[in-house]
Amino acid sequence: PTSLSREQRPTVMIHPDDAAALSIADGDKVILGNERGEIRLHAKSFDGVLRGVLIAESIWPNHAYEDGRGINTLTGADPIAPYGGAAFHDNRVWIRRAA
């Protein structure tokens, strides 16, 4: 199967205990945000994620997200080290169940 048929839609992985504390069920539509903006995607409960950590994998095009704004909405454009290398981004975000 292709990646799209296997994954189906953009998701964010959340530890089951964190999800329960926020009244988020597996598959719920959630809003992820920070000072840069907000995006909507679906929660995926996964006990392989550390508590307090959210993971949004893959590179979905913006049009795959409900509002047309993808994960990079939450990511800065800080330059990489002066001698090159890959740019990795960890971003502080909040999460809540969408109404």
TrEMBL record:
Keywords: Iron, Iron-sulfur, Metal-binding. This is Molybdopterin oxidoreductase family protein. It comes from Candidatus Afipia apatlaquensis. The keyword Transcription does not apply. InterPro entries: Asp_de-COase-like_dom_sf, MoPterin_dinucl-bd_dom, Prok_Mopterin_Oxidored. Residues 6-86 form the Molybdopterin dinucleotide-binding domain. The keyword Iron applies. One of its GO terms (molecular function) is oxidoreductase activity.
